[in-house]
Amino acid sequence: MTRFLPLYRTAADRLARADWLLPTLARFLFAAVLLVYFLNAGLTKLGPGPLGIFTPSTGAYAQIFPRVFEAVGYDSDALGLFHWLVVVAGTVAEFILPLLIVIGLLTRLAALAMVGFVVVQSLTDLYGHGSALGAWFDRFPDAHILDQRALWVFLLLVLVIKGAGPLSLDRLMAGRG
């Protein structure tokens, strides 16, 4: 055991100095696990044509304002400017924020905005769509809201705290300034 402890301490010291590893892996995992999820979710909200971002699909309103949309008989024309702005902003966010994180540009800000996005998304799922919250400290690790979204937020908070890491546009821009 006495031989093991110095080896352990040496390895732990090297890992502690590898400050680049955590944010780099966090961005990689975000890209591997969540990038396509958010991009596909954004695509479902686009209306027809090249300017479909400005004419959201009916599915966009159903996803973001499920109860309000049902109350107006699924007629998006019956919704106001506020609803349109929220849907367009949410759709743009689903494209822009994940891409900023993956390329490492304005990473801390984009990750913080994504935390807010995930919170709003989770609340919409809970109160608008009636999804089950799930529970922590149970034997099931896959509750759609509480377990999964907690891990997403943790991953994003690593980026908020640590930044993008060395392989990023943030680092490239910092070197020039």
Keywords, separated by commas or semicolons:
single chain; 177 residues; mainly alpha; 68% helix; flat; cell membrane; transmembrane helix; DoxX; membrane
What do you see in this structure?
The chain has 8 helices and no strands. It is mostly helical. It has one domain. The chain starts with a helix and ends with a helix. Keywords: Cell membrane, Membrane, Transmembrane, Transmembrane helix. It is found in: Cell membrane. Belongs to the DoxX family. It is a multi-pass membrane protein.
Helices and strands in order:
Layout: H1 4-17, H2 21-43, H3 58-64, H4 66-71, H5 81-103, H6 107-128, H7 146-162, H8 169-176
Helix pairs in contact: 2-5, 2-7, 5-6, 6-7
InterPro entries: DoxX (IPR032808), DoxX-like_oxidoreductase (IPR051907)
Keywords: Cell membrane, Membrane, Transmembrane, Transmembrane helix
Transmembrane segments: 20-39, 81-102, 109-130, 150-169
